Amino acid sequence: MIEHIELFFKSIFIDNMVFSVFLGMCSYLAVSKKVATAVGLGAAVIFVLAITVPLNWLLDQYLLQPGALSWLGAEYADYDLSFLSFIMFIATIATMVQLVEIVVEKFSPSLYNSLGIFLPLIAVNCAILGGSLFMQSREIETLGLAFNYGISSGIGWFLAILAIAAIREKIRYSNVPAPLRGLGITFIVTGLMGIGFLSFGGMLTGGEEEAEAKPAAAQIEQAQTENAKELAENTKTIE
Fold first, then answer.
1. Can you spell out the DSSP letters for 146-181?
2. Which one-letter DSSP state was computed for residue 124?
3. Interior/surface letters 33-67, b for 16+ CB within 10 angstroms, e for the rest
4. Which has more confidence, 217 or 32?
5. Whole-angstrom Cα distance, residue 165 to residue 118?
6. What is the pLDDT of residues 179-231, one digit of tens each?
């Protein structure tokens, strides 16, 4: 349970897709002019990540990894299909994005029209593919953790685009210097928000550092004790 909680908060605040690794910046900048539009796109990203990351985890575990086909028989244990990872991951993402596009167009035509071309472009949003690739590179162990990582990464991206959309709506009524209007002030605000999110970097590491410090202190104390004993023995020998 602890690892689920740690992964959830770490993916949202510490390893945020936008402010930590700068993924999904195209749609982040283009569809963040209105809060309502940002909420719709953010919800779509959460849904796609929550579905594609676990599906790609299953593909990676039972199809793509070296030896993943051993469940078919011993003769398939030496097969390595990892070179197909990009193709399979993108195919899964494109399928889910097409499903989201159909659902949004059916139940919310106004949101579909406001998102425009950026809704189908979720399929090539590097944050979506990055979620699956990070899941693979970090060797997430279980399907539950993969699902958790997909949702939490989507929530992190959702919070980022929601925050910048709310700020950009307020900036319209501010006296921004002419050279900074538009994307200029947006980049500056994004940088400041990224610095703010960096402050969460030590949120989940304090206990680990303390646990590592205790054995180190014990080793130093033991070494000092042994040196004192050796010095005492040498003194006795000289006497």
1. HHHHHHHHHHHHHHHHHHHHHHHHHHTTS---GGGT
2. G
3. eebebbebbbebbbbbbbbbbbbbbebbbebbbee
4. 32
5. 16
6. 888 888 888 888 888 888 888 777 655 444 454 545 655 666 666 666 556 65
In the prediction, which pLDDT does 32 show?
A: 86
**For 167-172, which contacts have Cβ atoms below 8 Å and span 24 or more sequence positions?**
168/32, 168/33, 169/33, 169/34, 169/35
> For residue 168, how many other CB atoms are within 10 A of its CB?
19
Residue 166: per-residue pLDDT = 92
The pLDDT, as a whole number, for residue 238 is 54
- Round to whole Å and give the CA distance between 185 and 57: 39
pTM over 0.90: no
Query: Rg of the chain over CA atoms, in angstroms?
Result: 25
Q: Give the residue from 2, 5, 48 showing the smallest Cα distance to 158.
A: 48
Nearest to 47 by CA among 125, 114, 116, 109: 125
Whether the CA torsion 18, 23, 27, 29 is positive or negative: it is positive
Do 123 and 49 contact (CB within 8 A), yes or no? Answer: no
Are 12 and 142 a contacting pair, CB within 8 Å? no
- CA–CA dist 127, 18 (Å, integer): 8
Reported as a single tens digit per residue, the pLDDT across 39-74 is: 888 888 998 999 999 999 999 988 888 888 888 888
C-alpha torsion sign, points 187, 148, 116, 170: negative
Instruction: Give the separation between CA 18 and CA 9, rounded to whole angstroms.
Output: 15
Yes or no: say if 179 and 47 are a contact pair by the CB < 8 Å rule: no
